[in-house]
Specification:
alpha/beta
């Protein structure tokens, strides 16, 4: 800039033909001097033109465009896109959400997203691939997310993998025993067995913690499946009896996380804190079909419980909160190949309930299928992922 200005001064000076010193009149010298002085003053006021370009570039960089990928839930992507205007007002940035089927995402080499919304069962696969980064302390400590409002069971079990907080929840989908509408009847087997299993088997319920040998054909699972067969697939109501059994989740609960590929980590972290806040998160949870709350401040709705409002609904909220404030739950194993393991358990449940295959024989077949899946994916890798699913760290 200095060279340009000096060059400009030279040019101006050259444009004024000063007479030789010996013949110069005072009037001409004074006029030339005043001309140069005025030109220099004008340049000081307006500055050099190139000085404004970096400022314009920095203003354009202030607007951050965030990409959100939603797994298996187009309705959630649509709901997020409806929040574009509000996000622009809050942050000055742009927001776009697209939906992808898990199978297509699993075949990809990279995530191509800043934020991911996904069913909780895929957390292990995503972490093993290195696609998710731990949640920043600034998010967990923010007033907007308000972590203290999240039920302890959700904070301690569902949000963590490998000893780190990986994702924020929007809502939970608890598996019900004897649910006639459950398209994943294997989770109903887990729900039926959970009370006896959690109180007697410790944390490693579904696999031997050292060998990854399946436990799904054990006596408690056989008894649970037999109970489902005898119930004939009748719907079980949550009701007040919900307090007497152990919640099973970690399958279809919608979760939010920041991608390791993002170049806008700070903005992406602010976005997930807002999307998972009490008001916005509840709206998105409903779009995902997760109608049971993860927050103390959000009551169990009548549509979620099948109960009428009033004192009965209030009591249901109280017993639900008591369960979620406790320390007992059963998580679907959040490890690679989770859909394959669940499909094998679904086949066993359907064989027993619909085809009259003895419960013990059906579950022995499921255990054999689980063993083959573990061998195919690598026993050592699956063992490591299972321990991280249990938040057991070295």
């Amino acid at each position: 800039m200095d060279q340009w200005c000096r060059h400009g001064e030279k040019t101006i000076a050259n444009q004024v033909e000063l007479p030789a010193a010996s013949s110069a009149s005072p009037t001409v010298c004074l006029s030339a001097f005043l001309y140069c002085l005025l030109a220099s003053a004008a340049m000081l006021v307006t500055g050099c033109p190139r000085e404004q370009q970096p400022m314009q570039a920095s203003r354009s960089r202030a607007s951050v465009a965030l990409r959100v990928v939603v797994v298996n839930e187009p309705a959630v992507a649509e709901a997020i896109n409806r929040l574009k205007g509000e996000w622009a007002e809050r942050s000055g940035g742009e927001l776009s959400a697209t939906s992808k089927d898990w199978k297509k995402l699993a075949e990809a080499k990279q995530l191509d997203a800043d934020v991911l919304v996904f069913p909780s069962r895929y957390m292990g696969e995503l972490c093993v691939r290195g696609w998710l980064q731990p949640i920043r302390a600034s998010v967990l400590e923010s007033e907007e997310f308000n972590a203290a409002d999240i039920f302890p069971l959700v904070r301690r079990e569902l949000m963590r993998w490998g000893g780190e907080t990986i994702a924020l929840p929007l809502g939970i989908v608890i598996a019900g025993a004897n649910d006639a509408d459950n398209v994943h009847p294997g989770t109903s087997v887990l729900a039926s067995a959970a009370p006896a299993l959690v109180s007697s088997e410790g944390e490693a319920i579904l696999f031997e913690p050292q060998t990854m040998k399946p436990r799904i054909d054990g006596p408690m699972f056989v008894d649970a499946l037999q109970q489902l067969v005898e119930a004939g697939g009748k719907r079980a109501d949550f009701g007040i009896d919900f307090a007497h059994w152990v919640p099973v989740f970690g399958f279809a609960d919608p979760m939010l996380a920041v991608s390791t590929e993002t170049r806008n980590g700070a903005s992406a972290s602010k976005l997930i804190a807002w999307l998972a806040s009490a008001e916005t998160g509840t709206q998105l949870a409903h779009a995902a079909g997760a109608r049971l709350p993860i927050r103390r401040s959000v009551p169990v709705s009548a549509t979620a419980s099948g109960q009428n409002s009033g004192s009965r609904g209030t009591k249901l909220t109280d017993v639900f909160a008591k369960t979620m404030n406790g320390d007992k739950c059963l998580l679907v194993p959040r490890i690679p190949g989770v859909d394959d393991y669940c499909a094998a358990l679904n086949r066993a449940a359907n064989a027993a309930i619909k085809e009259n295959v003895p419960a013990e024989a059906a579950l022995k077949k499921a255990a054999a299928d689980w063993e083959q899946i573990t061998k195919r994916l690598g026993r050592g890798k699956q063992h490591s992922a299972y321990l991280k699913h249990l938040n057991v760290t070295d």
